[in-house]
Specification:
Order of helices and strands: HHH
Distance between the termini: 55 Å
Mean pLDDT: 79
Helix content: over 70%
Shape: rod-shaped
Strand content: under 5%
Number of helices: 3
Structural class: mainly alpha
Largest sheet: none
Length: 97
């Protein structure tokens, strides 16, 4: 789910950036809703889409990062405990010899 949210956020942000790269593409759509000062509204809409898209992508990345950190901590704990058991077993073997 986090991947889909990140992908969707990235797509929205890219669409917003397209408002600045090719504003004429958005004129027919924006002119109907904003007949006065259409160019300014295209930029405002683009900025809003970039902000919302990046916000969604970053939030998804944060959730994924948190999940990965929990997994990493779990692996560290297992590795540490496994290492302790191995050292104890090596010490026990050394005493027997």
């Amino acid at each position: 789910m986090a991947k889909l949210a990140a992908l969707t956020g990235t797509a929205i942000a890219a669409t917003g950036a397209a408002h600045f790269v090719s504003p004429k593409t958005f004129e027919p759509i924006s002119a109907a809703a904003f007949p006065k000062d259409t160019g300014t509204w295209i930029k405002r809409n683009g900025a809003t889409e970039v902000a919302l898209g990046l916000g969604q992508a970053v939030e998804a990345a944060d959730r994924l990062r948190d999940l990965l950190l929990v997994g990493q901590r779990g692996l560290e704990e297992l590795t540490h405990r496994g290492g302790l058991h191995l050292r104890r077993a090596e010490r026990a073997d050394a005493r027997v010899v």
